[in-house]
Amino acid sequence: MKFTIVGAGAIGGTVGAYMARGGEEVVFVDQDVAHVKAMKEKGLTIKGYQETFTLPVTANYLEELAGPLDVVLLAVKAQHTEEAVRSIQHLVGPDTAILSLQNGLCEQTIAKLVGAERTLGAFVNFSADYLEPGLIHYGSTGALYVGELDGRISPRIATIARALSHWGTVHKTDNIWGYLWGKLGYANMLFATALVDATMADVTDRYHELMAELACEIYEAADKEGVRVEGFDAIAPSIYYPREQQDWARVHASLDQMAAWQRSSQKTKSGIWRDLAVRKRRTEVDQQIGLAVVAGGRHGLPMPLTRRVVAMIHTLEDGSREMSWANLDELESMRRGTKR
Questions:
Q1: Helix (H) or strand (E) holding 140
Q2: What are the φ/ψ torsions at residue 34 (nearest 5 degrees)?
Q3: Range of the domain at 114
Q4: Do 77 and 117 sit in the same domain of this protein?
Q5: pLDDT tens digit string along 262-291?
Q6: Do 151 and 205 lie in a common domain?
């Protein structure tokens, strides 16, 4: 198989680098001209939590690609999914497969554009940051699951999983939607941590009840959608939802474990925080927890905390709000007022 990484930043660049080092045929494509130029001239450097290495890679500008493409690993920001897929749509053949290495439910968008039969899902949960052209920081390992949208364990999924395994352990799953929704619950917590200029672990430690309810709102929406939510790493959805079955000793222990896991990473603040504080760009809030709100709305779920987090992130994006502990205190006050 020949792999084309579309979006060779934090996630795409890290996975692709390990695949290329392992002998897979990989082409790196990115809209950042300086990044492509650096990869062409100097190779790609992964500054990792266990090792740092530089390797020569095949990097192309979009106009240099030729079709039909074999396997596309799509790793652009969620809000750029449609634009990215349309930019390569003329290179998609009858046997092309597009695997989303993105946050949110981007598989839905991809499937509408190229067909569900050409769309594969991936759940990715490791930390990495694009630092500068040709340089990516790989902060810590995590989980990676791949699957067909209809739950089959197909030959192509098995082959792709083997190729991805140069990065690390890759699992095949018959419930990729369960993992994607599982991560959305954690994402709701991470968006909340980005409301203040503090580490993820410090926020998690301080607001256990708020973190639990943010997860609950997402998992309730998933339940109404008929999705069996899956756990991963330090995230155990069944501990948080259903609410009436919560054992608070287990909830607190789970969040303590989560904070310890967050502290173990070299990346102590989320990519959301980095988008807002460092890169000064819009986040994926609408394509992640915003889509969960839309799904919940179909079932009459109010999801007040999630809706408020979305609104707060928007005001941070447009500069009318500052990162502050007061933002989280406001959410905690809401939680207390709407406690079931």
A1: strand 135-148
A2: -65, -35
A3: 2-174
A4: yes
A5: 898 888 999 999 999 999 999 999 999 999
A6: no
Measured CA to CA, the distance from residue 332 to residue 278 in angstroms comes to: 26
Residue ending a domain, choose from 126, 146, 174 = 174
Q: Domain check: are 182 and 169 in the same one?
A: no
Of 90, 290, 65, nearest to 187 by C-alpha is 290
Looking at the fold, whether 189 and 267 belong to one and the same domain comes out as yes
pLDDT at residue 340, rounded to an integer: 53
Task: Compute the distance between CA of residue 197 and CA of residue 39 in angstroms, rounded to an integer.
Answer: 32
- Round to whole Å and give the CA distance between 38 and 43: 7
C-alpha dihedral sign at 136, 22, 29, 269: negative
In this predicted structure, the answer to whether residue 317 has a pLDDT above a threshold of 80 is yes
Beta carbons of 164 and 157 less than 8 angstroms apart: no
Element (H, E) at 3: strand 2-6
Please tell me whether residue 339 adopts helix, strand or coil conformation: coil
Whole-number mean pLDDT of the chain?
96
Give the pair of three-digit tokens for residue 168. 């690390």
Amino acid occupying residue 164: L
Residue 42 has pLDDT above 80, yes or no: yes
List Cβ neighbours of 294 (8 Å cut-off, separation of 6 or more).
none
* 309-315 LR contacts (CB < 8 Å, sep 24+): 309/188, 309/191, 309/192, 309/195, 309/214, 309/285, 310/191, 310/285, 310/286, 312/195, 313/191, 313/194, 313/195, 313/272, 313/276, 313/283, 313/285, 314/285
* 32, two tokens: 């950042």
Q: In total, how many domains does the chain have?
A: 2
265 closest CA partner among 229, 234, 220: 234
